[in-house]
Amino acid sequence: MAQSPYLQAIKSYMLARHYSRRTVSTYIYWIKGYILFCQKQHPDQLGAADVSRFLSYLSVQRNVAPATQAIALNALVFLYRDIIKKPLGELGEFRRSKRQAKLPTVLTKQEVNDLLAQLSGSHWLMACLLYGSGLRRMELARLRVKDIDLDHLNIRVWNGKGSKHRIVTLAQELALPLREQIAQVERFLLDDSQHALFAGVWMPSALAKKYPNAAYEVGWQYLFPATRLSFEPQTEHLRRHHVDETSINKCIRAAALNAKITKHVTCHTLRHTFATHLLQSGADIRTVQEQLGHSDLKTTEIYTHVLKRGAFGVVSPLSTGM
Fold first, then answer.
1. How far is the CA of 7 from the CAs of 24, 26, 29, 44, in angstroms?
2. How far, in Å, CA of 276 to CA of 303, rounded?
3. Is 142 among the catalytic positions?
4. Are 122 and 224 in contact (CB under 8 A)?
5. Buried b or exposed e, range 192-229, using 16+ CB within 10 angstroms
6. What does the H/E/C string look like for 205-239?
7. Does the annotation mark 294 as catalytic?
8. Among 67, 200, 241, 286, which residue's beta carbon has the most beta carbons within 10 A?
9. Residue 164 known to be catalytic
């Protein structure tokens, strides 16, 4: 079904309405899975009862996480509401995924120092921002120069998870490295501007029309640009995109391995560590919630569970008995 005209039409519809490529890819994946589950019947001939069966299948047979089941549901709600023009309405009962969420992996301060010691240059700076500001990996990759406020030591995160904006803290120790990184971005822009086909950095369509010259301004350039120019898939414009987010995770994992950290470490581990260390230092949980951009306080409360485990909350009887 990779070349399905129906799926291609949905993809084109979403791209024309400026859905992110990640969202497009995810929705197409689940719509395709739903169609295959229903033995390739056209979704127009199916309805709420079939969607409920599919969601139950994901929970019972595939044992997906609750968040994954929710994403699949969102994709199908979009399909029926925006494409088929027959909103699903009441789905009725379906088996909700109850797989227990894992407790986050958290590094000690010494482990953070050991990990950072294995990195240098822009990789070191990216890791410092992940830990020091609690950014998600994609939020880091999409940062633009204008989002860094060195005067007030904060970072403006635009369209984070759930399309929410927020302001996060910025460690003053990173001011000089950030100025050096911005200087590197300026050098890239100067070189790129000499290329006859260079079309500037990618801009959201509304802003591109309102500020036609902004794509060539330093403030709108990605803070961590790709190492080379590339052609934009849809328009074939030559641009310098942001760093590939998968490469960020690779360098973090390699650094953890070189630092001989036995825990499973990813970019998100540094975000978990940021939250836990903030709470350890006495920060209010609602402050941490705002920094992380969580809609529900319960999501943030998982870090209090981490603090209450082991030596942080319960003293082993072996320790008291010796």
1. 10, 12, 9, 13
2. 6
3. no
4. yes
5. beeeeebbbbbbeeeeeeeeeeebeebebbbbbbbeeb
6. HHHHHHCCCHHHCHHHCECCECCCCEECCCCCCEE
7. yes
8. 200
9. no
Given a contact cutoff of 8 angstroms between Cβ atoms, the answer to whether 268 and 131 are in contact is no
The CA-atom distances, in angstroms, between 55 and each of 31, 73, 260 are 12, 7, 41
pTM: 0.80
Let me know if 271 is a catalytic residue: yes
Q: What's the token pair of residue 253? A: 């994992």
Identify the CA nearest to 142 among candidates 63, 245, 238. Answer: 245
> Residue 269 corresponds to which amino acid?
T
**Which residue's structure tokens are 């973090």?**
252
Q: Where are the alpha helices (DSSP H) in 17-47?
A: 21-37
Per-residue pLDDT of the chain (322 residues), as tens digits, is 657 899 999 999 998 887 888 889 999 999 999 999 999 999 999 988 899 999 999 988 888 888 888 899 999 999 999 999 988 877 766 666 665 667 789 999 999 999 999 999 999 999 999 999 999 999 999 999 999 999 999 999 998 877 789 999 999 999 999 999 999 999 999 999 999 999 999 988 778 888 889 999 999 999 999 999 999 877 788 999 999 989 999 999 999 999 999 999 999 999 999 999 999 888 889 998 899 988 888 888 888 877 765 545 556 666 655 5
Give me the catalytic one of 136, 242, 272, 277.
136
Distance CA 170, CA 135 (A): 11
156 is catalytic: no
Strand ranges (E), the chain: 148-149, 154-157, 166-169, 230-231, 238-239
CA-to-CA separations, 226 to 60, 76, 241, in angstroms, rounded: 42, 34, 6
From the candidates 142, 239, 271, 277, give the one annotated as an active-site residue: 271
